[in-house]
Write a structure and sequence with these properties.
A hairpin with a 4-residue loop joins strand 3 and strand 4. The chain has a four-stranded antiparallel β-sheet with strand order 2-1-4-3, with no helix packed on it. The longest helix has 4 residues. It is about 5% helix and about 50% strand. The chain has a single domain, classed as Rubrerythrin, domain 2 (Single Sheet), CATH 2.20.28. The chain is mostly beta strands.
Length: about 60
Amino acid sequence: MAKKGNRVQVILECTDHKDSGKSGTSRYITTKNKKNSPDRLEVKKFNPILNRMTLHKEIK
């Protein structure tokens, strides 16, 4: 029987995009170890619609 891992898949969504008024969303999918980092992720990633680096937060 296979062990269940601590890694879970999470979705990161741009925080600045809603305020810009442009259509669409910037989302990334990544994995994290829920045992080592139980808090929500916050990572600076590239937003192709705004054409700059923005803060992306984990959504539920």
